[in-house]
Amino acid sequence: MTASPSATVSPGLTTTKSPFIERAQSEGRLYIEQPYDLYSDANHEAWRALYARMHDRWQKYANHRFLQGIDNLCLDPTRVPRLEDVNKFMAPRTGFRAKAVSGYVPAYMFFDCLRQREFPTTVTIRDGQVLDYLPEPDIFHDIAGHVPMHTDEAFADTLVLFGECARAAAERAADITDPHERVRRVTSVIKAMARFFWFTIEFGLMKSEDGKEIKAYGSGLLSSYGELEHCIVSPDVQRWPFQLEWVVNQYFEIDKYQPLLFVVDSFDHLFSEVGRLAEWVKAGTLDNVSPGEPAISEADLASFLGAAIR
Questions:
Q1: Is the separation of the CB atoms in 222 and 69 below 8 Å?
Q2: Which residue of 15, 179, 185, 285 pairs with 280 in a disulfide if CB–CB is 3.0 to 4.6 A?
């Protein structure tokens, strides 16, 4: 028996299946309002399933400030969060606010949002039938993975400093007169910043306060049921003390568990390393980092070059 049109299940705001997002993208609207009423029952069930299975692993493997952040945000474990509610709890603590977007934010725009204490946030959620398959960021990764750390003042200040790094890179690029050399150097700096961000904000490890354990603070780990445990206990993972020279020259692949991760001592240590990154940007030290992944997209390159022209 064929289902009637009225019985058709709405796609809601499921990643890669949302008409609302497709329309916003076709109209060139990057910054949007979260259309909360469009979330389907299946979307809320996907959030509930994701949150429920992560709880025990967070307690065991997550950095203590992440756990404090989860408590600070007062997230409902059964329903997709409203960004306005998230911001009510987050903004008074660190000034950061989640800012809804319809899709990918080019690199300079993303870092500049961080400088202004805004976090571009995806509003779609992965299909509940394939919880481990994530073709692109979703609201669980962004809100349950990233945002709890944004309630911590030291971490929030680190993100702002990332934005200052991007601004310094754009300002420096404006002084390079040869267009080919400008592209080459800017590409190298973006690659270095992407690697640093990947091995810290996305896949960073940190010593526990007593120095006896290693905990995860990177959002890519904290939103992954399988990799959160794997990154801490697997003998297949190399865990090295953070060294800036290594990090900015280390390529990575996004479609598999990370075989190499870096451990910082503390949030003060992380902040100081981002400060060194900014100094290296200004000094030209990052103009010739090693080739390889990640590839720099035309959109990312254009965003930095456009900022340099201004």
A1: no
A2: 285
Judge whether 139 lies within some domain.
yes
Q: How many domains does the chain have?
A: 1
> In sequence order, what are the residues at sequence separation of 6 or more whose Cβ sits closer than 8 angstroms to the Cβ of residue 178?
none
Number of H helices, E strands in the chain: 13, 6
Residue 35 phi, psi (nearest 5): -85, 75
Check if the beta carbon of residue 143 is closer than 8 Å to that of residue 219.
Answer: no
Taking only the tens place, the pLDDT of each residue in 152-195 is: 999 999 999 999 999 999 999 988 889 999 999 999 999 999 99
Q: What is the CATH number of the domain that holds 164?
A: 1.10.800.10
Q: What is the pLDDT, as a whole number, of residue 129?
A: 87
Q: What is the pTM of this model?
A: 0.93
Question: How many CB atoms neighbour CB 84 within 10 A?
Answer: 13
Is 15 part of a structural domain of the chain? Answer: no
**Residues 190, 296: Cα–Cα separation, whole Å:** 7
DSSP category for residue 144:
I
Is residue 162 within 8 A of residue 276, CB to CB? The reply is no
- Residue 90 contacts residue 99 (beta carbons within 8 Å): no
**201, 218 contact by CB (below 8 A):** yes
